[in-house]
Design brief:
Radius of gyration: 19 Å
Structural class: mainly alpha
Order of helices and strands: H
Shape: rod-shaped
């Protein structure tokens, strides 16, 4: 029973980490797009 619980916990943690990476990637793209807009407005 403990082994099943440990495996389930590890799978949940892995899924959470992967979701966090995707979220940070999306946030980076948003910041980059905002920077481009500011740069284009300054030209």
């Amino acid at each position: 029973m403990k082994k099943l619980l440990a495996i389930s916990f590890m799978l949940l943690m892995s899924a959470g980490a992967l979701t966090g990476c995707n979220t940070m990637s999306g946030a980076g793209q948003d910041v980059q797009a905002g920077g481009r807009a500011v740069q284009d407005a300054a030209e």
